[in-house]
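Training component of the fellowship. As part of building independent skills, the fellow (R.M.) carried out the full modelling exercise for a liganded target. The chosen ligand was S-adenosylmethionine. The inputs are recorded below so that the supervisory panel can assess the work.
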Amino acid sequence: MDLKFGDIQETALVTLAIRASETRRKNARISDPAAQTIIDTLGVDVSRYDPFLSHEGVVARTIMFRDTLKDLIRRYPDAVCVNLGCGFDDKFSQVDNGQITWFDVDLPDQIEVRRKVFKDRERCVMLEGDALDGAWTRDLPKGKMNLIVMEGVMEYFSKEQVRTCLNMLCGCFTQGYLLVELHSKFMEKNSKHHDAIKNTNAAFGWGTDSGRDYLALEPRLTLVSERSYNEEMKKYTIRGKLFAIVGKKINNRLAVYKWQAD
Ligand SMILES: C[S@@+](CC[C@H](N)C(=O)[O-])C[C@H]1O[C@@H](n2cnc3c(N)ncnc32)[C@H](O)[C@@H]1O
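Fellow's submitted model of the complex:
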C-alpha cells in the first residue's frame, strides 16, 4: 500500500508497533489483537519503532489510560467518549460496556488510512477532526458526560496549540473529563534523544513539569489527578525500576482534568 504520513501522524506507527509486539509476548501485559493485522495490511516497516523504554512507556500508558477510563465509564455508563488523535488505537474494544457512544477522531489523512483497516461499528464511529478546531463536535450527541482521551497527542503541540485545544474542548463540550498524556520540559528539549521519536521526523512541543500549568491556559479546567508512567513501569523490570529513580521527573504522565458548564 502506498502510504504517506505527516510527521506527527507517523508517530501513530510507534504505538501500533509496540502494541503489536507486546501482544505477541508470552506474558503480554496488554492485548491488541488488531495491531499486527493493521501493520500487515498497511505493509509498513515498523522495526525501528520499538525500543525498550518506549515499549515499556507505551505498555504503562495503555494500562493506565484503559483503567482510568474504565473507572470513569463505571460512573458515567452512557458517556460520549472521544479518542482525539486516535491513530490506530482501538481503545473502544478495551473499555466498551455496551452503552457508551464512541468517536475515533483524527486528522483527515490519518482517518483515511484508518478506514482501510477499521470499519465503523455500532456506537463506535470514525470522524475527521482537528484538535485545534471544534467544527467536528457540532453534531455529536448532547447532554451526556463527555470523556475525551488524548494519548500521545498534546506532546507535539506548541503552548499556543495546547491553549487552543483546551479552549476548544471546554467551549464545545458543556461538561467533561479530559484524560491527557503530558511530557516534561526535559523531554521538550530532547526529542532527538528519545529512543523512538528520534527515528521519526516529529519533535516534541511544549512540555510541563506540573499538570497545573494547563489551568492557566483554560480556567474552566480542574486538575483531578496526575500520575507518572513510572508508577506502572517500575512494576515489571529492573530497568523500569531504575528509570523510575533516574527519570523521576522526566517520564510522561497521565493527567485527568474535568470541567462543567458555568
Ligand atoms: C503518537 S500518535 C498517537 C495515536 C494514538 N492516540 C495512540 O496512542 O496510539 C499521535 C496522533 O495524533 C494525531 N494528531 C496530530 N495532530 C492532530 C490534530 N491537530 N488533531 C487531531 N489529531 C492530531 C496524529 O494524526 C496521530 O494519529
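The panel noted the following from the submitted structure. Residues 8-9, 11-12, 15, 84-87, 89, 106-107, 110, 130-132, 151-153 surround S-adenosylmethionine (CB under 6 Å). The longest strand covers residues 176-182.
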